[in-house]
User: Fold this.
Amino acid sequence: MIMKEKAREFEYTQADFDVLRKISNQYSGILVPDDKFDMFYSRLSKRVRMLGFTSFKQYCHYLKNNPDSEFTEFINAVTTNLTSFFRENHHFEYLSKTVVPGLLKKNAAHKKIKVWSAGCSTGEEPYSLAMTLKESVPADWSINILATDLDTNVLATAAAGVYPADRVTGIAEQRLKRWFQKGMGAQANKVRVKPELKELIEFKQLNLMQEWPLKGYFDFIFCRNVLIYFDRETKAMLANRYCSLLEEGSHLFIGHSESLHQLNTGFSLIGNTIYRKSTK
Assistant:
Protein backbone atom coordinates (compact mmCIF):
# COMPACT_ATOMS: atom_id res chain seq x y z
CA MET A 1 0.00 0.00 0.00
CA ILE A 2 1.40 3.38 -1.01
CA MET A 3 0.99 6.10 1.59
CA LYS A 4 -0.03 9.50 0.29
CA GLU A 5 1.87 12.51 1.58
CA LYS A 6 -0.35 14.37 3.98
CA ALA A 7 -1.86 17.57 2.67
CA ARG A 8 -0.23 20.74 3.98
CA GLU A 9 -1.67 24.21 4.31
CA PHE A 10 1.52 25.69 2.80
CA GLU A 11 3.85 24.44 0.09
CA TYR A 12 6.95 23.11 1.83
CA THR A 13 9.86 21.30 0.22
CA GLN A 14 13.16 19.70 1.24
CA ALA A 15 14.89 22.69 -0.37
CA ASP A 16 12.97 25.05 1.93
CA PHE A 17 13.94 22.98 4.96
CA ASP A 18 17.59 22.96 3.90
CA VAL A 19 17.62 26.75 3.55
CA LEU A 20 16.03 27.25 6.96
CA ARG A 21 18.26 24.83 8.83
CA LYS A 22 21.36 26.30 7.17
CA ILE A 23 20.35 29.76 8.38
CA SER A 24 19.69 28.38 11.87
CA ASN A 25 23.09 26.69 11.96
CA GLN A 26 24.97 29.74 10.71
CA TYR A 27 23.42 31.92 13.40
CA SER A 28 23.19 29.61 16.39
CA GLY A 29 25.60 26.77 15.63
CA ILE A 30 22.76 24.30 16.23
CA LEU A 31 22.78 21.21 14.01
CA VAL A 32 19.34 20.39 12.62
CA PRO A 33 19.02 16.71 11.62
CA ASP A 34 16.82 15.39 8.81
CA ASP A 35 14.16 14.16 11.23
CA LYS A 36 13.26 17.76 12.16
CA PHE A 37 11.65 18.34 8.75
CA ASP A 38 8.07 18.12 10.07
CA MET A 39 8.94 20.00 13.26
CA PHE A 40 10.16 23.00 11.26
CA TYR A 41 6.89 23.01 9.31
CA SER A 42 4.71 22.87 12.43
CA ARG A 43 6.79 25.44 14.33
CA LEU A 44 6.93 27.98 11.47
CA SER A 45 3.46 27.60 9.95
CA LYS A 46 2.06 30.24 12.30
CA ARG A 47 4.62 32.78 11.04
CA VAL A 48 3.96 31.90 7.41
CA ARG A 49 0.23 32.31 7.98
CA MET A 50 0.63 35.56 9.91
CA LEU A 51 2.76 37.07 7.15
CA GLY A 52 0.20 36.14 4.51
CA PHE A 53 2.40 33.76 2.52
CA THR A 54 1.27 30.63 0.67
CA SER A 55 4.60 28.82 0.64
CA PHE A 56 7.74 28.33 2.74
CA LYS A 57 9.77 29.46 -0.25
CA GLN A 58 8.24 32.91 0.17
CA TYR A 59 9.07 32.80 3.87
CA CYS A 60 12.69 31.83 3.17
CA HIS A 61 13.00 34.79 0.81
CA TYR A 62 11.43 37.11 3.41
CA LEU A 63 13.70 35.85 6.19
CA LYS A 64 16.81 36.42 4.10
CA ASN A 65 15.76 39.94 3.15
CA ASN A 66 14.37 41.07 6.50
CA PRO A 67 16.71 39.61 9.13
CA ASP A 68 16.39 42.53 11.56
CA SER A 69 12.63 42.21 11.89
CA GLU A 70 12.14 38.47 11.39
CA PHE A 71 15.18 36.63 12.63
CA THR A 72 14.29 36.69 16.32
CA GLU A 73 10.80 35.35 15.48
CA PHE A 74 12.39 32.56 13.43
CA ILE A 75 14.85 31.47 16.12
CA ASN A 76 12.18 31.68 18.83
CA ALA A 77 9.97 29.35 16.79
CA VAL A 78 12.50 26.62 16.01
CA THR A 79 14.44 26.35 19.28
CA THR A 80 13.35 23.76 21.84
CA ASN A 81 12.80 24.78 25.47
CA LEU A 82 11.98 21.73 27.56
CA THR A 83 12.80 22.26 31.23
CA SER A 84 11.47 21.88 34.79
CA PHE A 85 12.23 22.94 38.35
CA PHE A 86 15.12 20.95 39.89
CA ARG A 87 15.59 18.94 36.70
CA GLU A 88 18.43 16.44 37.25
CA ASN A 89 18.18 17.04 40.98
CA HIS A 90 21.54 15.39 41.76
CA HIS A 91 23.19 18.57 40.44
CA PHE A 92 21.41 20.72 43.02
CA GLU A 93 22.20 18.26 45.81
CA TYR A 94 25.88 18.28 44.86
CA LEU A 95 25.73 22.07 44.74
CA SER A 96 24.34 22.43 48.28
CA LYS A 97 26.41 19.65 49.87
CA THR A 98 29.78 20.06 48.13
CA VAL A 99 30.14 23.21 46.01
CA VAL A 100 28.57 25.75 48.38
CA PRO A 101 30.58 24.69 51.48
CA GLY A 102 33.73 25.10 49.41
CA LEU A 103 32.66 28.54 48.19
CA LEU A 104 31.83 29.68 51.73
CA LYS A 105 35.47 29.12 52.61
CA LYS A 106 36.98 30.32 49.34
CA ASN A 107 34.91 33.53 49.10
CA ALA A 108 34.76 34.34 52.83
CA ALA A 109 36.63 37.62 52.37
CA HIS A 110 34.11 39.22 49.99
CA LYS A 111 31.01 37.08 50.71
CA LYS A 112 29.85 36.96 47.08
CA ILE A 113 28.74 34.12 44.80
CA LYS A 114 28.39 34.70 41.06
CA VAL A 115 26.98 32.03 38.75
CA TRP A 116 25.76 31.61 35.16
CA SER A 117 22.80 29.63 33.85
CA ALA A 118 23.55 29.40 30.11
CA GLY A 119 20.50 28.30 28.16
CA CYS A 120 18.05 29.15 30.94
CA SER A 121 14.88 28.65 28.85
CA THR A 122 11.71 29.65 30.76
CA GLY A 123 13.58 30.18 34.03
CA GLU A 124 13.07 27.00 36.02
CA GLU A 125 16.82 26.32 36.20
CA PRO A 126 17.97 29.74 37.49
CA TYR A 127 15.10 29.86 39.98
CA SER A 128 16.08 26.37 41.18
CA LEU A 129 19.64 27.66 41.57
CA ALA A 130 18.36 30.68 43.49
CA MET A 131 16.37 28.49 45.88
CA THR A 132 19.31 26.16 46.44
CA LEU A 133 21.70 29.02 47.14
CA LYS A 134 19.30 30.96 49.39
CA GLU A 135 18.78 27.80 51.44
CA SER A 136 22.49 27.04 51.85
CA VAL A 137 24.26 30.42 51.85
CA PRO A 138 24.26 32.83 54.85
CA ALA A 139 21.84 35.74 54.58
CA ASP A 140 24.57 38.38 54.59
CA TRP A 141 26.15 37.04 51.39
CA SER A 142 25.56 38.50 47.91
CA ILE A 143 24.22 36.08 45.27
CA ASN A 144 24.20 37.04 41.59
CA ILE A 145 22.81 34.72 38.92
CA LEU A 146 23.17 35.55 35.23
CA ALA A 147 20.57 33.67 33.18
CA THR A 148 20.86 33.78 29.38
CA ASP A 149 19.09 32.30 26.39
CA LEU A 150 18.83 32.87 22.66
CA ASP A 151 15.01 32.88 22.68
CA THR A 152 13.45 36.20 23.74
CA ASN A 153 10.01 34.65 24.30
CA VAL A 154 11.22 32.22 26.96
CA LEU A 155 13.26 34.98 28.59
CA ALA A 156 10.10 37.06 28.96
CA THR A 157 8.39 34.11 30.66
CA ALA A 158 11.41 33.61 32.91
CA ALA A 159 11.58 37.26 33.94
CA ALA A 160 7.85 37.29 34.79
CA GLY A 161 8.30 34.29 37.09
CA VAL A 162 4.68 33.15 36.74
CA TYR A 163 3.98 29.46 36.06
CA PRO A 164 0.99 27.09 35.81
CA ALA A 165 0.47 25.37 39.17
CA ASP A 166 1.20 21.94 37.66
CA ARG A 167 4.78 23.05 36.92
CA VAL A 168 5.61 23.00 40.64
CA THR A 169 3.90 19.75 41.67
CA GLY A 170 7.27 18.04 42.17
CA ILE A 171 8.54 20.64 44.64
CA ALA A 172 8.34 19.80 48.37
CA GLU A 173 5.51 21.59 50.17
CA GLN A 174 7.82 23.43 52.57
CA ARG A 175 9.95 24.77 49.73
CA LEU A 176 6.84 25.66 47.74
CA LYS A 177 5.43 27.75 50.59
CA ARG A 178 8.75 29.50 51.16
CA TRP A 179 9.49 30.55 47.58
CA PHE A 180 6.17 30.79 45.69
CA GLN A 181 2.95 32.76 45.97
CA LYS A 182 -0.31 31.05 44.98
CA GLY A 183 -2.57 32.91 42.58
CA MET A 184 -6.04 34.05 43.62
CA GLY A 185 -9.27 34.34 41.66
CA ALA A 186 -8.60 34.24 37.92
CA GLN A 187 -4.95 33.35 38.71
CA ALA A 188 -5.89 30.45 41.02
CA ASN A 189 -4.23 27.90 38.73
CA LYS A 190 -0.89 29.74 38.72
CA VAL A 191 2.03 30.44 41.03
CA ARG A 192 4.49 33.32 41.15
CA VAL A 193 8.12 33.20 42.23
CA LYS A 194 8.66 35.45 45.27
CA PRO A 195 10.53 38.75 44.71
CA GLU A 196 13.44 37.73 46.94
CA LEU A 197 14.36 35.06 44.37
CA LYS A 198 13.75 37.22 41.31
CA GLU A 199 16.03 39.96 42.60
CA LEU A 200 18.99 37.56 42.51
CA ILE A 201 18.69 36.90 38.77
CA GLU A 202 19.49 38.98 35.70
CA PHE A 203 17.90 37.63 32.50
CA LYS A 204 19.69 38.48 29.25
CA GLN A 205 19.53 37.40 25.62
CA LEU A 206 22.82 35.86 24.47
CA ASN A 207 23.88 33.94 21.37
CA LEU A 208 26.55 31.48 22.49
CA MET A 209 28.07 31.56 18.99
CA GLN A 210 28.79 35.28 19.19
CA GLU A 211 30.83 37.50 21.52
CA TRP A 212 30.12 37.14 25.23
CA PRO A 213 30.02 40.57 26.95
CA LEU A 214 30.85 38.97 30.30
CA LYS A 215 33.36 40.21 32.85
CA GLY A 216 35.25 38.43 35.59
CA TYR A 217 34.98 34.85 36.79
CA PHE A 218 31.93 32.78 37.72
CA ASP A 219 31.98 30.48 40.73
CA PHE A 220 30.25 27.77 38.68
CA ILE A 221 28.35 27.46 35.39
CA PHE A 222 25.26 25.47 34.45
CA CYS A 223 25.03 24.73 30.72
CA ARG A 224 22.66 21.80 30.57
CA ASN A 225 21.01 20.28 27.52
CA VAL A 226 22.64 22.87 25.27
CA LEU A 227 25.79 21.13 24.01
CA ILE A 228 23.70 18.27 22.64
CA TYR A 229 22.70 20.47 19.70
CA PHE A 230 26.25 21.17 18.52
CA ASP A 231 28.91 19.31 16.57
CA ARG A 232 32.09 18.04 18.21
CA GLU A 233 34.20 21.07 17.27
CA THR A 234 31.62 23.54 18.57
CA LYS A 235 31.19 21.60 21.83
CA ALA A 236 34.94 21.80 22.46
CA MET A 237 35.00 25.49 21.61
CA LEU A 238 32.14 26.28 24.00
CA ALA A 239 33.61 24.16 26.79
CA ASN A 240 36.92 26.02 26.52
CA ARG A 241 35.15 29.38 26.54
CA TYR A 242 33.35 28.34 29.73
CA CYS A 243 36.68 27.19 31.12
CA SER A 244 38.15 30.66 30.57
CA LEU A 245 35.43 32.14 32.82
CA LEU A 246 36.11 29.79 35.72
CA GLU A 247 38.95 29.72 38.21
CA GLU A 248 40.87 26.49 38.80
CA GLY A 249 38.77 24.00 40.73
CA SER A 250 35.45 25.59 39.74
CA HIS A 251 32.59 23.52 38.33
CA LEU A 252 30.69 23.12 35.04
CA PHE A 253 27.37 21.23 35.06
CA ILE A 254 26.04 19.79 31.77
CA GLY A 255 22.98 17.73 30.82
CA HIS A 256 22.39 14.01 31.41
CA SER A 257 22.70 13.16 27.70
CA GLU A 258 25.86 15.23 27.19
CA SER A 259 29.56 14.54 27.64
CA LEU A 260 32.96 16.17 27.17
CA HIS A 261 34.54 12.74 26.70
CA GLN A 262 37.51 12.78 24.32
CA LEU A 263 37.21 16.53 23.81
CA ASN A 264 40.28 18.67 24.39
CA THR A 265 39.07 20.91 27.22
CA GLY A 266 40.38 22.13 30.56
CA PHE A 267 37.83 20.05 32.51
CA SER A 268 37.95 16.75 34.38
CA LEU A 269 34.87 14.61 35.01
CA ILE A 270 34.25 14.25 38.75
CA GLY A 271 30.65 13.04 38.91
CA ASN A 272 27.49 12.39 36.95
CA THR A 273 27.76 15.11 34.25
CA ILE A 274 29.69 17.31 36.71
CA TYR A 275 33.05 18.67 35.60
CA ARG A 276 35.76 20.63 37.39
CA LYS A 277 38.36 22.94 35.87
CA SER A 278 41.67 21.14 36.12
CA THR A 279 44.49 22.57 38.18
CA LYS A 280 47.78 23.14 36.40
